[in-house]
């Protein structure tokens, strides 16, 4: 919980600086790239967080990473601050929080679409358009297949859940029959 709060604070600071410079999307892309690098190569994260390495060596590594993602002076200073304060380990969390802020700024919602079988792209686009109309935001859907729902779909976007699965309908029918007994 504490890491999430810290990550949100750092992300908010960088987001507001980026918004002032109209550069928050570039910062978001850079943080995402660095977080992906740390995920794919754990030794990179270790070289940034391990206190056995001298601070100057860790700063040089972070400066090289900042140049690889084409970071400007603000982003480079931000990344160096994370190394100095021994917070480089929460960089992936900062990237996630930054993505949430950018999505909110751009009026984008993420959701999941669960179906019993694989849906064709035309049907997915219709469902996406309907969800966009309901939520008033641009919706990015992640599709999942779950045969246990028997048929129909379950769509989740934020707090909105549209459950049109056969399993839910059968459970409702079962409860209705039990109630009559």
Low-confidence stretches: none
Structure summary, number of beta strands: 4
So, CATH architecture of the largest domain?
Orthogonal Bundle
Residue share in helix: 55-70%
User: How far apart lie the N and C ends?
Assistant: 47 Å
Helix-strand sequence: HHHHHHEHEEEH
Tell me the structural class: alpha+beta
Spell out the blueprint of helices and strands:
Layout: H1 2-20, H2 24-40, H3 42-49, H4 55-68, H5 73-84, H6 91-105, E1 108-115, H7 121-135, E2 138-145, E3 153-157, E4 160-163, H8 166-180
Parallel strand pairs: 1-2
Antiparallel strand pairs: 1-3, 3-4
Helix pairs in contact: 1-2, 1-6, 2-3, 2-6, 4-5
Walkthrough of the structure:
By secondary structure, the protein is of the alpha+beta class. The protein has 2 domains: 103 residues, N-terminal domain of the delta subunit of the F1F0-ATP synthase (Peroxidase, domain 1, Orthogonal Bundle); 74 residues, Glutaredoxin. Helices cover 64% and strands 14% of the residues. The chain has 8 helices and 4 strands; from the N terminus they run ααααααβαβββα. A 4-stranded mixed beta sheet has the order 2-1-3-4. Strand 3 and strand 4 form a beta hairpin. Helix 1 packs antiparallel against helix 2. The model has no long low-confidence stretch (mean pLDDT 94).
């Amino acid at each position: 919980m504490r890491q999430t709060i810290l990550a949100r604070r750092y992300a908010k600071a960088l987001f507001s600086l980026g918004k002032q410079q109209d550069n928050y999307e570039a910062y978001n892309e850079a943080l995402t790239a660095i977080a992906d690098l740390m995920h794919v190569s754990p030794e990179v994260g270790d070289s940034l967080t391990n206190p056995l390495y001298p601070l100057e060596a860790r700063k040089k590594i972070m400066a090289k990473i900042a140049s690889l993602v084409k970071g400007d002076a603000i982003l480079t200073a931000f990344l160096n601050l994370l190394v100095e304060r021994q917070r480089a380990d929460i960089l992936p969390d900062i990237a996630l929080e930054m993505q949430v802020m950018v999505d909110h700024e751009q009026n984008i919602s993420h959701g999941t679409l669960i179906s019993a079988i694989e849906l064709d792209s035309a049907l997915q686009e219709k469902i996406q358009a309907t969800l966009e109309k309901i939520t008033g935001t641009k919706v990015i859907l992640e599709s999942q297949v779950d045969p246990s729902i028997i048929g129909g779909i379950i769509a989740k976007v934020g707090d909105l859940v549209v459950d049109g699965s056969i399993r839910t309908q059968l459970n409702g029918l079962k409860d209705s029959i039990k109630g009559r007994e």
